[in-house]
Amino acid sequence: AVPPLDLAEPRFKAFGGFESKTSDGGLVGWTSSDTGTVTVVDLVDGNGVASLSTGSPASIAQTISTPDSGFEIIFDYQFLTTTGELSVLLDGVELTNIAAPDQLSSAFESFILTVTDPSWFNLDGVELKFELNGSSVSQIYLDDISASAIQPVPVPPMIWVFAAMAGMLLRSHKLNGSS
User: For the residues 129-152, what does the mean pLDDT come to?
Assistant: First the structure.
């Protein structure tokens, strides 16, 4: 069994690069569905990707632990057919769904799924699943799956200088009797 992945790390990269594969072409660090076909495909540039072909559904899953605040699930995908839908599920609940395009792209597209619902925070042992549904010819590549906690955006120090200056000007303006 693969130990749960901890999203509480400052920047976490899941086993989603797919450069490693089992002796039979399977995925390392992920479980796959019994339906459909799930393999690692080596692309021309040496990049390994997860290939899912429907047998309705075809899926890959990994057990994760979520941070105590918002987080992002980031991945690259490329539909190879104009049929099918990719669902991203967390603990069996669909977080998003991407339908195959009417026209195929020759390049991967990146997707960022932001999770801000507190009911998903601080959970251990939940399943992150990518599931392809569609006709028997639906196919998709997945790559570079990662997740990270959302880092709070610090307030720039200069904003405090401007706020202090504005307060002093306002006070000076009132002391001089101006309105």
Answer: 86
